[in-house]
């Protein structure tokens, strides 16, 4: 079973409270999501392997460390996932970015791919899927399936808020994928919103409501 990690760093929790607040407007919401994405990226890259190197300081030669040639990819799920991309790129500026767009078929209620554009070498990359809300888990699970079909095999899922239903769905479908959240909330309501959540992440990010 993949890990479920709730990142309880005080700065993440403080900023998440401001993100949840219904009085927070579009500009502040966007900035805060960006900042939390950076802080979360810092936490979830803790396990990147290091290799030893040497550096010459103004004073002397020193034994030092650098990240051991890992290639990373960020995969935002359209549309709300876009709000987390720059925050991750702040820390990992050389990462490539692939995009996934899915819509729900009104008949089958299953997610259907309408956009999928990845860097060509996703099988060699550690991928971080970003999407602010892990609600039913249907979109996240399908995104992971699509990435695996194209050869990806090292995938992490990073969301601001998860519902237990979504966590279970992803863990059941993809037990190899670790899930990172800033908060695990209570449940989904009858409209598919996370309770208490933060409302519609896409609308709040882009001011479309
Ligand atoms: N998507 C959102 O934007 N908010 C939710 O609460 C659930 C899904």
TrEMBL record:
Keywords: Allosteric enzyme, Glycosyltransferase, GTP-binding, Magnesium, Nucleotide-binding, Transferase
Cofactor comment: Binds 1 Mg(2+) ion per subunit. The magnesium is bound as Mg-PRPP.
GO biological process: UMP salvage; uracil salvage
The protein's name: Uracil phosphoribosyltransferase
EC number, UniProt record: 2.4.2.9
Sequence ranges assigned to domain Phosphoribosyltransferase in this UniProt record: 6-208
PANTHER family for this protein: ADENINE PHOSPHORIBOSYLTRANSFERASE, URACIL PHOSPHORIBOSYLTRANSFERASE, CHLOROPLASTIC
Enzyme class: transferase
Function, in words: Catalyzes the conversion of uracil and 5-phospho-alpha-D-ribose 1-diphosphate (PRPP) to UMP and diphosphate.
UniProt KW Disulfide bond keyword: no
Gene name linked to the record: upp
Organism of this sequence: Sporolactobacillus shoreae
Reactions catalysed according to its record: UMP + diphosphate = 5-phospho-alpha-D-ribose 1-diphosphate + uracil
């Amino acid at each position: 079973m993949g890990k479920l990690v709730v990142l309880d760093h005080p700065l993440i929790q403080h900023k998440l409270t401001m993100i949840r607040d219904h009085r927070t407007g579009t500009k502040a919401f966007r900035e805060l999501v960006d900042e939390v994405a950076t802080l979360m990226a810092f936490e979830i890259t803790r396990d990147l392997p290091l290799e030893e190197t040497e550096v010459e300081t103004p004073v002397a030669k020193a034994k030092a460390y650098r990240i051991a040639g890992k290639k990373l990819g960020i995969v935002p799920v359209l549309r709300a996932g876009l709000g987390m991309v720059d925050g991750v790129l702040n820390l990992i500026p050389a990462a490539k970015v692939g995009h996934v767009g899915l819509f729900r078929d009104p008949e089958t209620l299953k997610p259907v791919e309408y956009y999928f554009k990845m860097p060509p070498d996703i099988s060699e990359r550690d991928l971080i899927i970003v999407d602010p809300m892990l609600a039913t888990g249907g979109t996240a699970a399908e995104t992971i399936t699509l990435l695996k079909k194209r050869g990806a095999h090292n995938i992490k899922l990073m969301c601001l808020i998860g519902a237990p239903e979504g966590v279970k769905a992803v863990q059941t479908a993809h037990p190899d994928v670790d899930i990172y959240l800033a908060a695990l909330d209570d449940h989904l309501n009858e409209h598919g919103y996370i309770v208490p959540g933060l409302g519609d992440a896409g609308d709040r990010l882009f001011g479309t409501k």
